[in-house]
Amino acid sequence: MNRRSSTAITPGKWTQAGLCVVRHQPGQAAPSTEPSSRAPLWLALYLARLPLEAASAPAGHPATVIFEQHGQAHRVTVANDAASRAGIKPPMALAAARALAPHLRALPRDQASEQKALKKWAAEAMRWTPRVSVVEDGLLMEITGSLRLYGGLRQLISLVRDWIEAETACFQIALTPTPASAILCARAGQELYVTNRRQLASHLHDLS
């Protein structure tokens, strides 16, 4: 998962089928490869710590979680690093989390603030493409028509990355030829860039 840092993406290999895969590796140049067709390309941004950031949870607090009501129990939605190191992880019951970290700070999830932040970022992302959608925990952008305007895939991804790094401390990016697969890869922590639909299935299989 990405945090505020200097990051880039490096090119993978082109297969005979024309698949371009690039993976994130800090400190190296972004890829020069471009998609081989004008098929739609979807860029998903998954914001894993959005509930913590929307609740204004202090970054330096020893252990903090966001919780929600599930049936008769409060359950952890997301935990910060300190809470995770204590063994707390979603969807653990809040009572069990407190047993692991007696001084745990627990904040109720503020979905209204999350949606406000997502809508703000969606409006800003329209500088690159008018086709921006808010999903439950991130953004989805159809970027094919913007590639030439912004100098190609490498340059556009770098611009989006620089922007989102300035907005949030934790994010994941994935690009694929379909919207659902882009969201799936990003949520799974697979920072994968696939520009050819024919090879998409093999990469999705790796997530199962």
From TrEMBL:
GO biological process annotation, one example: DNA repair
Pfam families (UniProt xref): IMS
InterPro entries: DNA/RNA_pol_sf, Rev_trsase/Diguanyl_cyclase, UmuC
Domain UmuC positions: 65-180
Protein name (record): UmuC domain-containing protein
